[in-house]
Design brief:
Largest sheet: 8 strands, mixed
Order of helices and strands: HEHEHEHHEHEHEHHEEHH
Number of domains: 1
Number of helices: 11
CATH architecture: 3-Layer(aba) Sandwich
Radius of gyration: 18 Å
Strand order of the largest sheet: 2-1-3-4-6-5-7-8
Helix content: 25-40%
Distance between the termini: 26 Å
CATH superfamily: Thiamin diphosphate (ThDP)-binding fold, Pyr/PP domains
Structural class: alpha/beta
């Protein structure tokens, strides 16, 4: 558990960075670094975060940063982890990458790092499109969302990357949302206490890309969870723990404040609601099954 009294006054993501107003990724990374502290090295492929650090030689980060090409981030992180191990130093090696760099362009390397069990904390900030280059669809763009390459709305369902990573049998997998900052920080703290390959997937709303007001990132992060569109769960030693929502909201509540979902038909809303319900039921079954397996062990 993380409480407000535990948080340091130190800031490792500095004011004056180049992020958009209301950026969910900025919020998430600020909290991540408050937990990890200065004993951290960041590895970042091309994406929003690599841009808003600023122009060389200045940087908005108060920790060392290595910029990488798409797909190379996991290899660089693995090399750093091995080098620090040889030197006998315990450093938080953290890979920060967006949904496109993780689920599309870099998936092969991320999967390889997970299979090897590299001692790295991989954090995917998921703003559900290639926002840095003009809002193009990624495999993690949700069904029905409009992008620059899908002006009529995406017709494919969002890839479930957290469960794909859990299938690698890695040390720790968790989902988090900027709408629940203390849950997010608790999961980062837990992941930092473990070794091996750890993966945290954070929903980070993007106001310009999602077509929302600049002050709605946290609220959208809460709505996504409360509607069941982005469930919060953890997988540790094969056991899935699902964070229950006391009162579910219909998915329409989440869509109505985002211009990217304008024009959804009643039929599409019913389809999305049914798919969300099915996926939550699937997670509930996984929780029961993995709990029984854990007890048997």
């Amino acid at each position: 558990m993380v409480t407000i009294n535990e948080l340091t006054d130190d800031e490792f993501l500095l004011k004056g960075n180049s992020s958009c107003a209301g950026c969910g990724a900025t919020m998430a990374i600020r909290w991540v670094l408050k937990i990890l502290g200065k004993n951290t090295v960041l590895v970042m492929p091309a994406g929003c975060v690599s841009v808003f650090q600023g122009m060389f030689p200045a940087s908005a980060f108060g920790v060392p940063v290595i910029d990488s090409s798409f797909g190379a981030q996991s290899s660089i992180s693995a090399g750093l982890a091995a080098a620090y191990k040889v030197k006998g130093k315990k450093i938080n090696i953290v890979t920060l990458a967006g949904d496109g760099g993780t689920g599309d362009i870099g998936l092969h390397a991320v999967s390889a790092a997970a299979e090897r069990g590299d001692d790295v904390l991989y954090i995917c900030y998921d703003n559900e499109a290639y926002m840095n280059t003009g809002v193009q669809r990624s495999s993690l763009t949700p069904y029905g969302a409009k992008t620059g390459t899908n002006p009529e709305g995406k017709m494919e369902w969002k890839k479930n990357l957290p469960l794909i990573m859990a299938a690698h049998n890695i040390t720790y997998v968790a989902t988090a949302s900027v709408g629940f900052p203390f849950d997010l920080m608790r999961k980062v703290k837990k992941a930092a206490s473990l070794s091996g390959f750890r993966y945290i997937h954070i929903l980070t709303p993007c106001p310009p890309g999602w077509g929302t007001a600049e002050n709605l990132a946290a609220e959208l992060g809460r709505l996504a969870v409360r509607c069941g569109i982005f469930p919060l769960f953890e997988v540790e030693k094969g056991k899935l723990t699902l964070h229950k929502v006391s009162s579910r909201l219909p998915v329409s509540k989440y869509f109505e404040v985002q211009r990217r979902f304008e024009g959804l038909t009643e039929e599409q809303l019913k389809y999305i609601q049914s798919r969300v319900d099915e996926e939550l039921a699937y997670l509930e079954q996984l929780e029961k099954i993995t709990s029984k397996v854990s007890k048997a062990e």
